Amino acid sequence: VEPLAKAGHVIIRIRPNNSDYKKLLLQVQDDGIAHDTVQTINFGIGLSNIQERLTTLFGTEGYLEINSNDPNPGVTVSIHLPWLTNKNL
Up-side HSE of residue 83: CA atoms within 13 Å toward CB? Predict the structure, then answer.
């Protein structure tokens, strides 16, 4: 939302993944940049570090993705994690 001249909105969701209740889905959604700008977002050092840590901790079950809110402006960043219980710790 930072490049906007007006106030923006951010929605944070944490819930079980709808398709697989053995996974946790964390999402941050905004109404900032236009959907066509999402194509130019790359995984810089910060996002690459997050992806690397998710892979190190959770293998293929932990990953990050960035999607456009197309046709609406903004981006949704999703982090997928396995559902952990005390037995897993």
Answer: 12
Instruction: List, in sequence order, the alpha helices (H) in 8-74.
Output: 45-58
Q: How far is CA 60 from CA 31, 69, 72, 84, in A?
A: 29, 25, 30, 15
CA distance 80 to 89: 18
pLDDT in tens, 8-23: 889 999 988 776 668 8
Say what the pTM is.
0.76
Rounded alpha-carbon distances, angstroms, from residue 71 to 17, 30, 75: 23, 13, 11
